[in-house]
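Work Package 3 (structural annotation) set out to generate three-dimensional models for the target panel prioritized at the project kickoff. During this period the team completed the workflow that converts sequence records into discrete structure tokens, so that structures can be stored uniformly alongside our sequence database. As a representative example, we reproduce one entry of 109 residues exactly as it appears in the project archive.
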Amino acid sequence: MRGPFLSGTHARFVQQVPNAVPKLRCGHSYRVKTAFVDADGDLHKQGETWRLIVSMHSIYYEELVLTVCFTPNDEEWHIPLSDRQACQQDVAKNPLNYFEEATLEDASL
């Protein structure tokens, strides 16, 4: 996981880039229901909750990046998913197997 970035840093991308994971909606909150490890080796445990700001594809790093915040008006973080790792490709291709809609009242780090 990369960051933190100041709150609002990635807001402009919501209008400028297409959502890279159409099954996840920008501005909605999600809870991890199946644990996974991101491209940086960070474990995202079951129950972790965040709001999706934007999802975008980074050609430079060959990865999908989920930009999230853990609490309202909080710092923003990147959750990178490598295009070269099968388990991370599965998270990107089948996000509803890993995430469910939630509320930020349930937020946990």
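The first helix runs from residue 11 to 16.
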